[in-house]
Specification:
Length: 278
Amino acid sequence: IAGSQRPVIVRSVSADGPSFGNLLPGDQILAINEETVSDAPRERVIDLVRRCKDTIVLTVLQPHQSPKSAFISAAKKARLRTNPPKVRFSEQVSISDPDSTMLKDDSLLLIPNVLKVFLENGQIKSFTFDSRTTVRDVISSLQDRLSLRYIEHFALVLEAGGLDQNQKLHLLQENQPLTHVVHRTYFQGMKCLFRVCFFPKDPADLLRRDPAAFEYLYIQSRNDVIKERFSMDWKSDITLRLAALHIYITVSSARPNQKISLKYVEKEWGLEPFLPLT
């Protein structure tokens, strides 16, 4: 099954098909029988494949999957479905002499000279730093880890306040040393977030130029609505459409062949992850 991107990407491979063992989900089709198709539409690629009666020569690119990437590739998703990892968690975590206020919330810093940065996809990245490390260094590292092309849309911010308070975001300047940032906020229960702070004029253009950045913007916007970060009065139909899109993506990724129904979603995940509290 081929995707609609350019170059066309192999989405899945049938276990009983001729491509099994030769193609992998995530492969980019660059040429068919020495004809370049890297810029060809999906329909053209499918037509060329169907014309081949006996043999076919496909030239594909299997992107290098960096372990630092925060987004899961199609190939990795397929492997996780067939062989899910088993994880065991400790019943209790003990930290000697912790500050009581730090344990109530997700703290900015618990280990000396290590900064925790919270990503919108739920991941937490840790960075060691010294007196010379700046905010710009962290942003550059995240650009590499997330495979972002247009980093000028992103910034680090400090989030102050919880669900029972007015949440405020404080933009950090790129030349700020991390030591100053941490020392200023260590005992205030703030969180350091990586966000799209400078919105593109045309989100559709961002999708074409930088799909990873567009996906991050979508996840961030969705989280802002669900977590009610800015206390906006959303129209109910917009909220429901966003929730429906979120449910569709979640179910399709976890159970590709599952029929989507509210009863199934409520049983597996509940509705809380998809809708605002109020």
